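Dear support,

We are seeing what looks like truncated structure output for some complexes. This example has two components. We would appreciate it if you could run it in full and send us the complete token output so we can diff it against ours.
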Amino acid sequence: MTSLPALPTPKKLGLVIDLDVCVGCHACVVSCKEWNTGGYGSALSDQQPYGADVSGAWLNRIHTFEIMPESGEVVGEAGEARIVHFPKSCLHCEEAPCVTVCPTGASYKRLDDGIVLVDEEKCIGCGLCAWACPYGAREMDLAAGVMKKCTLCIDRIYNETLEEVDRVPACVRTCPSNARHFGDLADPDSDVSRMVAVRGGIDLMPEQGTRPVNKYLPPRPRKPLAAGTSSLPKAENTDDAKGFLAWLDGMLDRI
Amino acid sequence: MHPAFSIIVFTTASGMGYGLATVLGLGLLDPAALSTKLAHVLALGLIGAGLVSSTLHLGNPQRAWRAFSQWKSSWLSREGVMAVVAFVPLCISAWSVIFEDACLDWAGLIGSGLSLLTVYCTAMIYASLRSVDAWHTRLTPACYLLFALAGGTLFASFFASAGESSAAHGLSATAIALLIAAWVVKIRWRRRLKNLTPLSNPESATGLGAIGRVRLLERPHMTENYLTREMGFRIARKHAEKLFRLALIFGGAVPIVLMVLCLLPGLSGGLTALLLFVAVLSHALGILLERWLFFAEARHAVMNYYGGREQDLRAV
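Here is the complete output from our reference environment:
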């Protein structure tokens, strides 16, 4: 049924994404596509992959934003603007609107770990779940005519044929800067829950009432560029010079 | 939102069909008249064509039967179930009128009620989506119901006049009142859309509002994707204004003027029917435009990740 679990799921498996650390390399995007095109469900198709108008279904995409503080200047002009790379995949919401709108029962939220999945055998490809999701986490596979979404790599995380270190989602395993973390957010003592507590993890669009499981760690505060410049030595002031540099300073003044 | 042709045709055709079926169910038209029989066939035809059209955009239409299963949570499923349930009394009522020259009051009234309920379910598919601010209001089902009733009554007045029924004048007068009511509510719906503050913005979407104002610097991929095609449809404000005015003229003003002409004494029956037929066609065109704008002007929350705020300000 596409009704949501009545009680909170005992486990809340999800991701914690560190926006301070992500370098925007897109390795997680490619790794996700690679794993999911050969894994659970039908292949993640592309349309005209070698043509002029390339397009395809991706379950994880990275956007890059420029954030301008109040009274900041435009980026590229040595201002206060910050660039944040922003990976986005399904947030496995507790109040998932994509699940309840599904007319066929293909979309569901698992009772035991809270993962939101699509049963591709039941999906009619009406697209209403993608409309209901405010995050754009679902994309239609135009070749198979079914909705695709992040499975939290359900075929990895419980897969005992893999080494234990590999039993995490492909995006987490591949991230070279350690910006992506996987764990149980229902357990307050898990690494991911502690990260969220220490760094003040946030929900995306809390006003949509979706109660996402995935959390984002905001970038750490940064000193403004101007604050750093005052500590640099002034070009004309050599009073602080010591030792060899003081001698050189004196010599150069004399000649 | 992308205005998919199949969905626009579906909501327009099935809306008019259910509206007509609702009025026919009241048994105001003479069941012995050929025009009344044709009206029943047309109502069922419009509803059927609309439903078939709605399956055209499915990725796997052969599994559409599964959509009857989730009526507990999904408005789309409820719509499917109600559409099938409504067909039973509507077909019984049509059978009785077409083959037995008699109105079955119970079947007609149940059919009318279920028809309106189906239109309500259709509207709630859109109105229940919090991710689309424009649709997430009680005014959305109000518009759908009023347009279905107004269009159905207009349609019925044409068939009544073609069958030289005494109900024609009363139906025309009612249709005028319903059309005015429908457009008053629609204008309120649109005024709400123009004035609303979006529920979400790029700051809340990224959670980075605490640092400052958020602007998209780079999209995930260079080319369009499913999301930008499906949710990122843009229409220039100046064109939207013109189209809305055209919808108002064709869907409201023209049919009202024509119906007022028909209410004047001394018009021949044939001419009245012709004028009402033009009114029906004009109304259908107006509703097609209105439905196109319903989608084209609606903005999805996901566009906050694709530079939506800037897009809103730019006319294309």
